[in-house]
Amino acid sequence: MSWQQRIDQTLQQRLQQGLLRRRHPVRLSSAASLQSGDKCYTHFSSNDYLGLSQHPAVIEAWCRGAQRWGTGAGASGHVTGYSPSHHQLEQTLAEWLGFPRAILFNSGFAANQALIFALAERDDTLIADKLMHASLQEAAALSPARYRRFPHNSLEGLVRQLDATDSANRLVITEGVFSMDGDQAPLATIQEQCRRHQAWLMVDDAHGIGVMGEAGQGSCGQQGVKPDLLVVTFGKALGVSGAAVLCSAAVADYLEQQARHLIYSTAFPAAQAEAVLASIHLVRHHPEYQQTLAVNILHFRQQCQHYGIELTDSQTAIQPVIIGDNHRALAVAEKLKMTQHWVQAIRPPTVPAGSARLRITLSAAHSAQQIEQLVEALYHAL
Ligand SMILES: Cc1ncc(COP(=O)(O)O)c(C=O)c1O
User: Fold this and answer.
1) C-alpha distances in angstroms, 1 versus 6, 9, 16, 372?
2) Mean pLDDT, the chain, as a whole number?
3) Is ligand 1 within 6 A of the CB of residue 204?
């Protein structure tokens, strides 16, 4: 089959199965509202859980940084792209999260892939939760290491995999808060099993950092866990972009030698590092953002209960409404759009087949009234 035929056929199949993905240009006017075309919507699909992407202090830090350092880093951090702001951000992250070192990456996707590709060699074994993020799944599958998966959040499944392999190097990989389900991994018991089996633990806390635990230290801080490798991202609750790996001094030195996403990619702008620093300052010193988010999550769940809308057990900002059928999920999202609510329908392969869903995300920026209006619209749309 020629490339052209393959492309045409794939697009046609995706359309027929309700799986075609489209991007829409939107103008975010606040952390809770957006404009698309000439219509305004309240949005419940962003990962800006604390509304910090629109915070004046974060915006000002970015502008100040750009005036001071220019707009681009100009090169990889190994050349001239590593500024005092990047250095300060790494030190702040290490101190805030209690690790010897932090290494910055352009995105969580890059950090996850860089880590796996840098560490995993032929006789190593990677043992991962089945629902872990695409960036990790892909890197694990492409790496030369053995790749085993355990059923989502199943401790029994994890132990079975740990018992079944005798590789000298075993890395258990999970997420703090699962991106499409909003549930949390039992990190303390997972860590215990890792220690018993002398395996390393890696936690991707993209959706936990800033929103879970004291001073927003994330899922690991909340559960009193110190993984060997922690990935945090800045594009979600911190409202900016980029990511970091928290690790030992030796692993950080090793990543500086081996992580191709770090070595062969232009560093993110110094101004961005300044914005992330401002955002971290807000998270650490203003617990009211986390508290408002918690109130909003509770309010949403109580409203859904009132209307008899079935939810999962998720207690986090990610509140999926499982629909099942792809076309129906799209139709419900369209109906919500007609009431000026922007909620994304998430379909396979992002989620398992037959579990298409509305991924509703709450933010500290939502008002009680906006949440009530969404739930009422949802009741009529379902
Ligand atoms: C669990 C998880 N890890 C990593 C990423 C990637 O992070 P980033 O958006 O910074 O590339 C995402 C987000 O898409 C995610 O949900």
Assistant:
1) 6, 10, 20, 52
2) 96
3) yes
